[in-house]
Write a structure and sequence with these properties.
CATH topology of one domain in chain A: Substrate Binding Domain Of Dnak, Chain:A, Domain 2
Shape of chain A: rod-shaped
Oligomer: homodimer
Helix content of chain A: over 70%
InterPro entries (chains A, B): AH/BAR_dom_sf, BAR_dom, DP13A/B
Number of strands of chain A: 0
Protein name (chains A, B): DCC-interacting protein 13-alpha-like
CATH class of one domain in chain A: Mainly Alpha
CATH architecture of one domain in chain A: Up-down Bundle
Largest sheet of chain A: none
Largest interface: A-B, 89 and 89 residues
GO cellular component, one term (chains A, B): endosome membrane
Chain lengths: ~250, ~250
């Protein structure tokens, strides 16, 4: 139904069938929004959890490499080239795990926070307002019923006034709650757009920062380091090949 | 024990206490190596699994955004700006998930493959060779026992020859297996260095490619896109603020 995007607050007092029907459409839309956001929330939570796990596993790997020299290997304990190479690896991998940790924090603040707020505050508010509206409608119905039974019997003026007062108060309360409910449903149409775009923007900004951090600060120094290590490994491989030949010639 | 790094193959025939003791040191070192690699393997497996999960979760998020326009929202179905914005987000996030998938593949080939090979082929080989060596030693002991019992009794020449032949064959077999076992233990001292450095190099190269891919191809086009979206969201937020003011003035 294109074009419909606002519940008329000015018609809340009338409570017409048209308004009720329009309310139904808004409630359906809210249900569809809830369901869609719930899926998106789960997907983003998976990204966030995986990013945290990646950060932790990278940190663990770095720590294991750092601990290499503390291992009590009965042989090759004097292999300082190997130890210092692994220390360097530990250092660069630790830097990488710091980048991952920064990314995790940014995802928490700029992606998970806004989408969680929308789920737990804005969508939850609608559910509560619907309940409050339902309760105040029931209260009003009760008061109106009491009033209609009143007119058939003879009652004293005091009771009559009390019931009248009750009808008035509950009507006023119902009107307030429906106003609040309608206003929140209207607001949700705007909030849901922000709630979709804000975490996505946060996600993208965090990724861009991560790539920048990685490529500007780390890549260059890593490449130099890797060229050196690469040469060592190549030499080691040559030595290994040489050794294999010796063994085979025995 | 610095300096020790080779089991003497030329002494395998003698089977001296010194050689046996040195073998013990190599076996201890192999056990320590196994234990260290097992921890490192688990940490790398965690990185790899987290990277795969990140790749999958990113892809899922992109797919959900792509599916936004297929959702049957009763309201705002005509919101083409929102739909096309989310399509663009879906596209860039899908590109990012492709980068993650490339990284996953590289980690599989250049990190998980070599460390798995070392675990399942090289370290496993040592275990098997030790068993084979044990069996051939037992066979030789049995043959020698039979021979020593022979000399006390009078046997016919044929049986004597058979037992002699058996001692010779089992001794030859034992010597072959100990040679093989020693050679593999010696080789392991070199292989373990390669097995440490190769997956780390693979890991680093994969990360560098990932950062390059991300910063060269994606970051720039993303930033332009985000500037546009940022403006839209800012406008939307202004509109939202404006709307809140209208509601509050009612």
């Amino acid at each position: 139904m294109p074009g419909i995007d606002k519940l008329p607050l000015e018609e809340t007092l009338e409570d017409s069938p048209q308004t009720r029907s329009l309310l139904g459409v808004f409630e359906e839309d809210t249900a569809a929004t809830s369901s869609y956001f719930s899926q998106l929330f789960k997907a983003m939570q998976r990204i966030y959890d995986a990013q945290n796990e990646l950060s932790a596993a990278t940190h663990l790997t770095s720590r294991l490499l750092k601990d290499y020299e503390k291992q009590r290997f009965p042989l090759g304990g004097d292999d300082e080239v190997m130890s210092s190479t692994l220390q360097q690896f530990a250092k660069v991998i630790d830097e990488l795990s710091s980048c991952h940790a920064v990314l995790s924090t940014q995802l928490a603040d700029a992606m998970m926070f806004p989408i969680t707020q929308f789920q737990e505050r804005d969508l939850r508010e609608i559910v509560i307002l619907k309940e409050v509206f339902q309760i105040s409608s029931d209260d009003h119905d009760t008061a109106v019923n009491r009033y209609s039974r009143l007119s058939k019997r003879k009652e004293n003026e005091k009771v009559k006034n009390e019931v009248m007062e009750d009808v008035y108060t509950s009507r006023k309360k119902q009107h307030e709650t429906i106003m609040h409910y309608f206003a929140s449903l209207n607001m949700l149409q705007y909030k849901k757009k922000i709630a979709l775009l804000e975490p996505l923007l946060g996600y993208m900004q965090a990724q861009i920062s991560f790539f920048k951090l990685g490529s500007e600060n780390l890549t260059q120094q890593w490449e130099e380091f890797l060229t050196n290590i690469g040469t060592s490994v190549f030499n080691m491989s040559s030595y290994q090949l040489h050794y294999i030949k010796i063994i085979m010639s025995q």
